[in-house]
Amino acid sequence: MPALNVLFLNPLAERHTQTITNMIPDTSVISCDLAHAPEYIENTDILVAWGFADIRRLYLAAPKLKWVHALSAGVENLVFPEIQQSNTILTNSRGIHGIPVSEHVFAFMLAFTRGFNLFIRQQQQHIWKRVEPQEIHEKTIGIVGLGSIGREIAKRAKGLGMHVLATKRTATTEIFVDKMYPAERMNEMLSQCDFVVVTLPLTEDTKGLFRLEQFSAMKRTAYFINIARGAVVCQPDLADALEQGLIQGAGLDVFEHEPLPAESPLWDMSNVIITPHVAALSPHYLDRAVKLFADNLLRYVNDREMFNVIDKVKGY
């Protein structure tokens, strides 16, 4: 195979370039932003971008392009008609997010059960007032969409003495899951959970999946946590569910519109913790992403089965 030209739409440190060239020495690696990418795209064989990047025009100007890789797990903006109808390979970085995202999920859970969502507000007002704390030990967590992130959450939940339920499109035997539910029985699972964590990809099937019906199926003492994609949830229905007391609280890292609009009622709810889409962030993120890409590049060059190939019709 001739030398490959790889274009990263993200800054790289020297160690990242070396990780790739140590694996495949003849590879040419260029990194730049989207604005300067047209300077290099004509000779690009492999494009590496974030799943939220709008690369459609760039893609149409790339006659040699054979493979697009997402630095993220989500590929929602990379699945457009032209790439769907082509032979271009599309892969993502699924598998590298489990550690930071699972830690973020448990930060939400522990903050709620120990009352930190209230204590922080009281501290700002110089109020000394106790709130009765709870434990997550022996509570039930429901993971909606058991993929690589869901498995990391399940593993940590088991370590903290929790009961673990999960939904998955295709049933599998999972060492850290007590009971698995098919997607069509999700509401049945929701009714048993003290914490519901959404880890689904955003597809046509999952868009707006959580509505008032799902929140009504949950315990009134349950907490809802979304670290997936904001559009999986009907946000006005979530706000209504919180205001009506259908659920006890929500930990939200993702929103349908980001940044979350200033007029959103979620900002001022004491039973809501908001983080600005940072659950997957880590100082080790790019190191892991580049290592995954380099491993996949070796497979590509040797014509071996690649990791994380996306079904471009399904979008995941």
UniProtKB/TrEMBL annotation:
Alphabetized UniProt keyword annotations: NAD, Oxidoreductase
Stored InterPro entries: D-isomer_2_OHA_DH_cat_dom, D-isomer_DH_NAD-bd, NAD(P)-bd_dom_sf
SUPFAM superfamilies per UniProt: Formate/glycerate dehydrogenase catalytic domain-like (SSF52283), NAD(P)-binding Rossmann-fold domains (SSF51735)
Domain (D-isomer specific 2-hydroxyacid dehydrogenase catalytic): residue spans on this chain: 37-310
Molecular-function GO terms, alphabetical: NAD binding; oxidoreductase activity, acting on the CH-OH group of donors, NAD or NADP as acceptor
Pfam families from the UniProt entry: 2-Hacid_dh, 2-Hacid_dh_C
Domain D-isomer specific 2-hydroxyacid dehydrogenase NAD-binding residues, every copy: 106-279
Family: Belongs to the D-isomer specific 2-hydroxyacid dehydrogenase family.
PANTHER family to which the protein is assigned, alphabetical: 2-HACID_DH_C DOMAIN-CONTAINING PROTEIN (PTHR43333), D-ISOMER SPECIFIC 2-HYDROXYACID DEHYDROGENASE NAD-BINDING DOMAIN-CONTAINING PROTEIN (PTHR43333:SF1)
Protein name: D-isomer specific 2-hydroxyacid dehydrogenase NAD-binding protein
